[in-house]
Design a protein that fits this description.
6-phosphogluconolactonase activity, mainly beta, globular, Isomerase YbhE, Cycloisomerase_2, Haem_d1_sf, four-stranded antiparallel β-sheet, 354 residues, Lactonase_7-beta_prop, 0% helix, five-stranded antiparallel β-sheet
């Protein structure tokens, strides 16, 4: 039996939906909607939680500038907006903000890029896709999907950023998301970086070390996200590390190569499903080995996340407008049966746990 826990879901239609996951007396899972608010920002695409604050980044697909906004959480699951949306200047940039004690954001720095187009049509310009803090809290790594770079920024004592030498990837890689992992203690401590690339559809691991005010990335392993030749149109999406630091989880879109019973439960037919992938981390070398190809619960798993103790996975299915919950084995790391799902209005872009 698990205590009720809240989840937050963003969608391109502008809704931020709060869900509650609970169990009945006989152990059955229930996923219900608590509230839904209309964001003042166009095309919400990413949610990040810190303490009692939820930060929302929005793309504004039809406009030149994106936006960021802060909400405060509550026990009821209802989010309270902290301030008016703050504008982020364009998609080919990296911006930093100061977070006030009340959660209000104020702009600090912005870095602009005019990178020449890459070899793939999606690389018409620089496209920084994620900002990742390293374990020392001294560097940010930014996968730039359009420029085939991992941009690196050092952080000084006043939280000002200085851009350092980037790490270059082969043309057409399209790095999307990544995560750092630090293992060991003192002199035996090792830092690894895991990267999923949307265009090359690869999952790679690197050894990371400081190098001349920047970070040095040494390749360790790389494999196709599906552990097989990628079908046409495949687009890799998300990458996260399990709370026990033993496994990497990834998702791939536009390749529904598996089938599952209809999650709606309205009939007994089988429906196509994209996939999630499980990779085991070698703690000594940082190499990844493929462990499982699991159904995502439907189409276009743009984003997914694990709960705090790593026993459950929530998946946001963009095309099916559905959130699904899978069980996860803490021992094997493998994803198990689909426990519960619910329809959420809009093309879903992000789902996080409270």
């Amino acid at each position: 039996m698990v205590s009720a826990v809240n989840l937050y879901v963003a969608s391109y239609d502008g809704n931020i939906t709060s869900l509650s996951l609970s169990q009945t007396g006989n152990g059955q899972y229930v996923l219900s909607t608590l509230s839904s608010l209309k964001s003042e920002t166009p095309d919400p695409s990413w949610l990040e939680k810190s303490g009692n604050l939820v930060f929302l980044a929005s793309e504004n697909i039809q406009g030149p500038n994106g936006t960021v906004i802060t909400y405060k959480t509550s026990d009821t699951g209802i989010l309270a907006q902290v301030q008016k949306p703050q504008t982020t200047p364009g998609g080919s940039s990296v911006s930093t903000y100061d977070v006030g004690s009340d959660g209000a954001l104020s702009s600090l720095q912005t870095f602009f890029y005019n990178t020449p187009p890459g070899p793939i049509p999606q690389q018409d310009k620089s496209h920084p896709h994620q900002v990742i803090l390293d374990p020392t809290n001294k560097f940010f790594a930014v996968p730039d999907l359009g420029a085939d770079l991992i941009r690196v920024f050092s952080i000084d004592e006043s939280n000002r950023l200085t851009e350092q030498k980037p790490f270059s990837l082969p043309g057409g890689t399209g790095p999307r998301h990544g995560a750092f992992l630090q293992l060991g203690e003192n002199t035996s401590q090792k830092t690894y970086f895991f990267l999923i690339s949307e265009l090359a559809n690869t999952v790679a691991s690197y050894a990371v070390s400081p190098a001349d005010k920047s970070l040095d990335f040494t390749p360790i392993s790389s494999g196709n996200v599906l552990n097989q030749a990628p079908p046409k149109g495949l687009a890799s999406a998300e990458l996260i590390i399990s709370p026990d630091k033993k496994f990497v989880y990834t998702s791939a879109r536009n390749a529904p190569i598996l089938s599952i019973p209809n999650p709606s439960g309205q009939n007994n037919d089988m429906v196509p499903s994209d996939t999630l992938q499980v990779w085991k981390i070698d703690p000594n070398s940082g190499a990844l080995s493929f462990e499982q190809l699991a159904p995502a619960g439907g189409r276009n798993p743009r984003h997914f996340s694990l709960n705090k103790n790593g026993t459950l996975a929530a998946v946001a299915l963009q095309d099916d407008q559905r959130v699904v919950i899978f069980e996860r084995s803490a021992d094997s790391g493998k994803l198990g049966q689909l426990l519960v799902s619910t329809q959420v209005v809009g093309k879903l872009t992000s789902v996080i746990w409270d």
